[in-house]
């Protein structure tokens, strides 16, 4: 699996970064919605089971880090969605459309958002606002999220067995 330009992929993981300008006057409602979303295993994105890492945040301003950086001012606030996931972009976007109705609630506050009823328009909008990612980290880039979760569960069972078996007769 690879992006046509060599970006966004490491091992079997794909990285998606989407910057979307927030409609003027929608910033605080969107911020309150995002802050109210469940986190961890209860987060909407966790339903997919293929996401290594994800983040949804609002960029109010860029951080100036001193020279030689040039000061830059954002003309809008931006909603930034990032996710590193197993597989390719199209199936991931289909999964969002099929299993995360909350995505409509956060992206409806953004400029040009076409809604989710027209899948082709939605995917085109995401692609239009996607920034190529040349560097991202996934702990196990050649393993799926399911394989990592299964390995951790096996490790837990082995640890429990070792603890339970301490002091038992070898027979």
Description:
With 171 residues, the protein is an alpha+beta fold. Helices cover 35% and strands 17% of the residues. The chain has 5 helices and 4 strands, in the order E-E-H-E-E-H-H-H-H. It has helices at residues 27-36, 89-99, 102-107, 119-129, 145-165, and strands at 9-10, 13-21, 51-59, 78-86. It has a 4-stranded antiparallel beta sheet, with helices on one face. A hairpin with a 2-residue loop joins strand 1 (9-10) and strand 2 (13-21). The longest helix has 21 residues, at 145-165. It is elongated, with a radius of gyration of 20 Å. The termini are far apart.
Protein traits:
4-stranded antiparallel sheet; alpha+beta; single chain
Task: Please give a quick description of this structure.
By secondary structure, the chain is an alpha+beta fold. It is built from five helices and four strands; from the N terminus they run E-E-H-E-E-H-H-H-H. Helices cover 35% and strands 17% of the residues.
The whole-number mean of residue pLDDT values reads: 87
Largest sheet, order of strands side by side? 1-2-4-3
Distance between the termini: 50 Å
Number of discrete helical segments: 5
Q: What fraction of the residues are assigned to beta strands by DSSP?
A: 15-25%
Q: Summarize the helix and strand pattern as letters.
A: EEHEEHHHH
Q: What radius of gyration results from the CA coordinates?
A: 20 Å
Percent of residues in helices: 25-40%
């Amino acid at each position: 699996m690879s992006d046509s330009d060599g970006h966004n992929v490491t091992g079997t993981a794909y990285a998606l970064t989407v910057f979307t300008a927030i409609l003027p006057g929608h910033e605080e409602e969107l911020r309150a919605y995002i802050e109210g979303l469940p986190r961890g295993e209860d987060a909407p994105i966790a339903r997919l089971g293929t996401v290594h890492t994800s983040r949804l945040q609002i960029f109010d301003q860029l951080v100036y880090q001193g020279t030689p950086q040039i000061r830059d001012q954002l003309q809008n606030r931006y909603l930034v969605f990032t996710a590193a996931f197993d597989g390719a972009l199209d199936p991931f976007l289909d999964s969002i459309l099929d299993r995360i109705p909350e995505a409509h609630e956060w992206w409806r506050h953004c400029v040009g958002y076409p809604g989710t009823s027209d899948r082709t328009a939605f995917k085109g909008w995401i692609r239009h606002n996607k920034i190529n990612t040349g560097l991202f980290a996934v702990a196990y880039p050649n393993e799926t999220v399911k394989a990592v979760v299964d390995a951790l569960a096996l490790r837990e069972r082995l640890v429990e067995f070792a603890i339970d078996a301490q002091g038992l007769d070898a027979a």
